[in-house]
TrEMBL record:
Keywords: Amidation, Neuropeptide, Secreted, Signal. One of its GO terms (molecular function) is corazonin receptor binding. Belongs to the corazonin family. One of its GO terms (cellular component) is extracellular region. It is found in: Secreted. This is Pro-corazonin. GO terms for biological process: neuropeptide signaling pathway; positive regulation of heart contraction. Residues 1-19 form the signal peptide.
Length: 104
């Protein structure tokens, strides 16, 4: 009887030590469950994308992410477009033109 209770006590002690070790290791930390840090990372990535990509590339990316069908214009390098054309297509989003006219 003593050997069974000793064995049970050793198993419980090992289980609690293992659980505590896992809790304080990389497996489980309070920081991983915090969504605030992830939101900051996403904001930082979004601002860095705007710095890296030019307006032509951003409009192509937006076009693809909206799920519109692919056409030949997407495969043409942005260097071949005239800058005025790119700027116009980038600024004139849907329903934005009346807004610009109202505030000018």
């Amino acid at each position: 009887m003593i050997t069974n209770s000793t064995f049970l006590l050793i198993c419980i002690a090992l289980a609690s030590v293992t659980a505590q070790t896992f809790q304080y290791s990389r497996g489980w930390t309070n920081g991983k469950r915090d969504g605030h840090k992830q939101a900051e990372d996403l904001r930082h990535m979004a601002s860095s994308v705007e710095k890296i990509l030019n307006p032509c590339q951003l409009s192509k990316l937006k076009y693809v992410l909206e799920g519109k069908p692919l056409n030949d214009r997407l495969f043409v390098p942005c260097d071949y477009f005239e800058e005025d054309e790119v700027i116009k297509s980038y600024k004139n989003d849907r329903n934005q033109e009346p807004l610009f006219e109202a505030f000018q």
